[in-house]
Amino acid sequence: MAKRKPTRSVNKTTLLVMGEGEHDKAFLSHMKGVYHERRSGSKVTLDFSSGGSPHDIIKDTVKKSRHVDYDQKFILMDSDVPVEQQDIKVAKDSGITILYSTPLCLEGMLLNVLKQNIPHTAQKCKSLLHPQLSDNPALPKSYDPLFAKPVLDETNHATVVTLRSLLGIKQKK
After folding, report:
1. Structure-derived torsion over alpha carbons of residues 133, 151, 20, 46, reported in degrees to the nearest 10
2. Which of 14, 40, 15, 41 is closest to 28 using CA atoms?
3. Measuring CA to CA, which of 68, 105, 113, 158 is 20 to 30 A from 8?
4. How confident is the model at residue 168 (pLDDT cuts 50, 70, 90)?
5. Phi and psi at residue 140, in whole multiples of 5°?
6. Is 105 helix (H, G, I), strand (E, B) or coil?
7. pTM value > 0.85
8. What is the rounded distance in angstroms from the CA atom of residue 120 to the CA atom of residue 118?
9. CA dihedral defined by 47, 148, 102, 17, rounded to 10 degrees?
10. Which of 120, 132, 126 is closest to 106 using CA atoms?
11. Residue-wise pLDDT tens digits, 71-101
12. Mind listing the pLDDT tens digit for each residue in 93-133?
């Protein structure tokens, strides 16, 4: 009879990070590739909502996380549309932390990281950033040349600092 390998029980920290849309998920995937270590003892799940209002995004995140016991849940959400107090309460009651892409949106935040001027609308931010990316903004590899680890390490943008910390999370003791 063949020997069985002893099973190791690893207590993993589970983390859900939702993006507002597919571009957010692509950037989060890029950051996960830069900061997350496979053997870190954490399991990071990235997903995205199909956009819409902050209410819809929070509702979708609650629904997607209802049957999985994540240790921590986050939404990366644009800041150009205000989040209603009742939606903030729903998120908080569901254990979800909202991280805001400021100014305006993901692209505004990334232009800020690059120390470029930020247009006054989310659409203009997209029009300015997307041509600078190496490929389709829905692909994680598109963010690599502009947002390599040294650039992400250098920024003090609060949301990016939080994401660096989350995606580099170590095994809980």
Report:
1. 100
2. 15
3. 68
4. confident
5. -55, -35
6. coil
7. yes
8. 7
9. 20
10. 126
11. 999 999 999 999 999 999 999 999 999 999 9
12. 999 999 999 999 999 999 999 999 999 999 999 999 999 99
The amino acid that residue 70 corresponds to is Y
Name the burial class of residue 43, with classes exposed (0-12), middle (13-18) and buried (19+) by CB atoms within 10 angstroms of its CB.
Answer: middle
Q: What is the pLDDT of residues 10-68, one digit of tens each?
A: 568 899 999 999 999 999 999 999 999 888 888 999 999 987 899 999 999 999 999 99
Rounded distance, CA 143 to CA 44, Å?
19
Beta-sheet strands, E only, within the chain = 13-19, 42-48, 72-78, 96-101
Tokens of 173: 């003791």
What does the alpha-carbon distance between residue 53 and residue 32 come to, in Å, rounded to a whole number? Answer: 26
Which of 89, 96, 86 lies closest to 63, judged by CA?
A: 96
Which residue type sits at 60? D
- Residue 101 is classified by DSSP as E
Buried/exposed code over 109-130 (b: 16+ C-beta within 10 A; e: otherwise):
bbbbbeeeebbeebeebbebbe
Other Cβ atoms less than 10 A from the Cβ of 65: the count is: 18
C-beta separation of 15 from 169 below 8 A: yes
Element (H, E) at 23: helix 22-35
Structure tokens at 126: 């997209």
